[in-house]
Amino acid sequence: MRAHQFIVTSFLLAVLVTPSFARDYLRSPLPNKIYLASKIDGQPFYGLVGEKGKKSRWYIAQWGIRFEFPAVIDCLGSCTDRTWQVRNADDSGRIKFTHTGPTGNVADLTQDTFGSRLIGCDPTQEFDLLLLPTNTTHAVDNYPGSPEGWVKPSRRPTLGAVTNLHIQVRQEVVSATQGTRCNAPYNLASTLIGVVFLNQVTGHTLFYQIVSYDSRNASFNGSWFMTEAPYFGVNDDMAVYNRPLLVSGAPSVWYDIDIAERVKFLIRTSPYLPGDTIGPHKDLKNWQLAQVYFGSLINGEAALTSRHSEIRLYSE
Fold first, then answer.
1. Could you tell me which residue, 258 or 138, shows the higher pLDDT?
2. Pairing status of strand 205-214 against strand 231-237
3. Model confidence at 104, in pLDDT bands (50, 70, 90)?
4. Predicted model pTM
5. pLDDT confidence bin for 16, thresholds 50/70/90
6. SS3 assignment, position 83
7. Rounded to whole angstroms, what are the CA distances from 199 to 19, 113, 152, 284, 286?
8. Mean pLDDT in residue range 207-231
């Protein structure tokens, strides 16, 4: 990990160069307390875990996990120093939060399917740990009763209304191991950024993902992975933005990427969205920002610990 002084300096420089007229879409940075969402879709949050704060505007999704996390943390010593962790019953999943001064709260997400913790070799059997802002207004991700993590819907932009849409995050792969139990390419560990857009006219949903690490060294450039309505999904990687991919065990990378023109291009040219650029499926003013997520996934036999902090989503 980079020296603390370097992290603080880079963070302060980022603050200094951020335009004062930027429009932020998230209502808070990553907090020290966080909600736990059930692995079963449609269930309410079942826990609020952490040390600092009485509420949260963020939660953790745990898709594909065998045993959910308990709603009780291990304080790792003091219960007031904002360093804590929680792990599930078979230790296939672990979440650790720390606080590092000006850089705010840092989340370590660990997944492990080696040995007795295997989840199979089905490529649809991903095990994901993802950090998301709470979202009470969009049906794509609706958890009513929790504090709203987003600005109100009227301030969430459509792709037709913005010339830029920036994502900031610091990510690191602390360690990663890929096994051999499953046939290639189904043993894998990845970190990513995801942005969800909802077509308010047709009701379709687009999941746009930027891969920042892949244990197979796979490349992604407009790689569509969901192609049938109502859900569409496409992967890029950081090379598309001329940014480095993460390296296991190497220092963290601070990303600030503008995804607006890329997503517009993918929608306009997609062979899977019907019609032309003036039709409702490809009309950019119909696609509204709906959700964002940061985290990691594994499939087959793999283990991964990834680190995430300094999250921001804004337009200039």
1. 258
2. parallel
3. very high
4. 0.90
5. very low
6. coil
7. 29, 36, 17, 9, 5
8. 96
Going from the N-terminus, what domains does the chain have, and what CATH number goes with each? 4-315 (2.60.120)
Q: How many angstroms separate the CA atoms of 52 and 309, rounded?
A: 16
Please state, in angstroms and rounded to a whole number, the distance separating the CA atoms of residues 169 and 177. Answer: 23
Residue 164 is encoded by which pair of tokens?
Answer: 């830029």
Is it the case that residue 7 has pLDDT exceeding 50?
Answer: no
Sheet strands (E) in 2-120: 23-24, 34-36, 47-49, 58-63, 84-87, 93-99, 105-112
Contact 130, 294 (CB under 8 A): yes
DSSP letters of 265-299?
HHHHH-SSS-S-TTSTTT-GGGEEEEEEEEEEEEE
The encoded tokens of residue 173 equal 């792969």
Whole-Å CA distances, 280 to 76, 113, 122, 225:
52, 43, 35, 22
Q: Are strands 58-63 and 34-36 parallel, antiparallel or unpaired?
A: parallel
Residues 298, 115, 64, CA angle at the centre, nearest 5°?
35
pLDDT digits (tens, 9 = 90+) for 282-291: 999 999 999 9
Q: What is the mean pLDDT of the chain?
A: 89
